[in-house]
Design a protein that fits this description.
Distance between the termini: 25 Å
CATH class of the domain at 234-436: Alpha Beta
Radius of gyration: 23 Å
Helix content: 25-40%
Shape: globular
CATH topology of the domain at 234-436: Vanillyl-alcohol Oxidase, Chain A, domain 3
Structural class: alpha+beta
């Protein structure tokens, strides 16, 4: 027996009248802000993966839990799908709305409710920006560790939905490792708490299951995060290489030596040049690759590890090794890496950001494979990634105004993800599956595994109304994979026809 969200509703949804639905929502929640005019709806037609666009039927902007509950109960009663959205910075189409659905925007849930410095925790609403948590905790000598490149804008609710990471996730973990508790509403409006303020809670670990579920199981209304003491000492090394494969090999040597850096990031020449031109981080623009290695902790430990890592980098073929002289230069080194995506956007009309994860030992092989695929498809690829944990972000450069280039970029992206699976990796590390990678889910997982995913979805959302068509492919889609492809933002998914 299979549990399919496209089989959970018999037949197509009834026609939804925007005016009538808006009236029902206002009756259920008189203070609820709604957007219904097309010019007001259009800014919400996509997330950070702008290639896929759909104007929603209605945008709801609740400011209280009761208003969120009202939206969900009205939607459930009428069979209207709901897509929850945070800051809209996601890169996999996970927050892309549905033409016949409600887009539930949680931007007004932007308050830090409490910081308990002694316990090392903070209670925050889902619309709070990632960076704002660390800024609020700074007077207590604390910070929130996960730091996606978009941390100045992305929201903690979206981080939980996608299980976001960042440049320091190698040592400090992903979002799932840095939260204690989530309060969420089911599609029926029931408030459920997953996890607890303690380090563990009885029963199944539903908090871990929920983290990374991309809005398919419930809507987040509050998150309790862990706060860590700021490291006493921090040092950043930048190593230059004249061969990308040598840089990849150095990563495995550092980890193999028992050193776990706070961050270990890699950029290839195309990314280096773009970032240097944009940020002026004093990067070596003639290098084929650079590694940024940050070490933190007690002063003596950092100094000892810096010497060990420096020796390993030289043994691995580094042609230049620099250590940040002060905090200003450390910040400048990281600014170049964290602004690599917008920097690449300055040198190409369009780019397609991928997100795959591989075993560290396979870095040289996969980098060589990406180079070969880049040549095969005739598109440049800039490589920027979290080298320490094997989370790669190849940026495929293309021009959507040139016939066929977007199709080639999508096809190249799919081949890169399939290469990641081939070497024992995954099609995503932190961006999620969303709409973007749903074909490659059919490569990553077997028939029975996908059935179990649908069973979990059905346990939380039996009517299949929360963010349908994302994350998990139907078995029919996987059977047809190869004949059905995503082209030019058009998504020929049979499971989405009713929406």
């Amino acid at each position: 027996m299979s549990f399919m969200y496209d089989e959970a509703i018999d037949g197509p949804l009834p026609a939804v009248d925007r005016t009538e639905l808006a009236a029902a929502l206002r009756t259920a929640a008189p203070g609820l802000e709604l957007l219904t005019e097309r010019e007001d709806l259009r800014p919400f037609e996509c997330d950070g993966l702008a290639a896929y666009r759909t104007v929603p039927l209605i945008v709801a902007l609740p400011s209280t839990v009761d208003e969120v509950r009202a939206v969900l109960t009205v939607a459930a009663a009428r069979g209207v799908p709901v897509v929850a959205r945070g800051a809209g910075t996601g890169l996999s189409g996970g927050a892309m709305p549905l033409e016949k659905g409600i887009l539930l925007v949680m931007a007004k849930f932007n308050r830090i409710l409490d910081i308990d410095a002694e316990a090392g925790i903070a209670r925050v609403q889902p619309g709070v920006r990632n960076l704002a948590i660390s800024q609020a905790a700074a007077p207590h000598g604390l910070y929130y560790a996960p730091d996606p490149s978009s941390q100045i804008a992305c929201s903690i609710g979206g981080n939980v939905a996608e299980n976001a990471g960042g440049v320091h996730c190698l040592k400090y973990g992903l979002t799932v490792h840095n939260i204690l508790k989530v309060d969420m509403l089911t599609i029926e409006g029931e408030l459920i708490t997953l996890g607890s303020d303690a380090l563990d809670s009885p029963g199944f670990d539903l908090l871990a299951l929920f983290t990374g579920s991309e809005g398919m199981l419930g809507v987040i209304v509050e998150v309790t995060v862990k706060l860590l003491p700021k490291p006493r000492s921090v040092k950043v090394l930048m190593a230059s290489f004249d061969d990308v494969a040598l840089a990849g090999g150095a990563v495995a040597k550092i980890i193999g030596a028992g050193v776990i850096p706070g961050g270990l990031e890699m950029m290839d020449n195309l990314a280096i040049r773009a970032a240097e031109d944009f940020i002026h981080a004093d990067y070596p623009v003639d290098a084929e690759a650079i590694l940024l290695c940050e070490l933190d902790g007690a002063h003596d430990d950092v100094e000892e590890d810096a010497e060990r890592v420096g020796a390993l980098l030289r043994e691995s073929g580094a042609c230049e090794l620099r250590v940040a002289r002060d905090e200003s230069e450390r910040q400048r080194f990281w600014a170049g890496r964290k602004n690599a995506f917008p920097a690449v956007g300055r040198i190409s009309p369009d780019y397609y950001c991928m997100d795959g994860t591989i075993p560290r030992r396979e870095l040289p092989r996969v980098l060589q494979g990406i180079a070969a695929l880049s040549e095969e498809y005739g598109l440049k690829v800039a490589n920027v990634f979290h080298a320490g944990d094997g989370n790669m972000h190849p940026l495929i450069l293309f021009d959507a105004n040139q016939p066929g280039e977007m199709d080639r970029a999508e096809a190249l992206g799919g081949r890169i993800l399939e290469l990641c699976v081939e070497v024992g990796g995954s099609i995503t590390g932190e961006h999620g599956v969303g709409r973007e990678k749903i074909n490659q889910m059919c490569v990553q997982f077997k028939h029975d595994e996908i059935e179990y995913f649908h069973a979990v979805k059905a346990a939380f959302d039996p009517s299949g109304l929360l963010n349908p068509g994302k994350n998990i492919p139907t078995l029919h889609r996987c059977a047809e994979f190869g004949a059905m492809h995503v082209h030019g933002g058009h998504l020929p998914f049979p499971e989405l026809e009713r929406f």
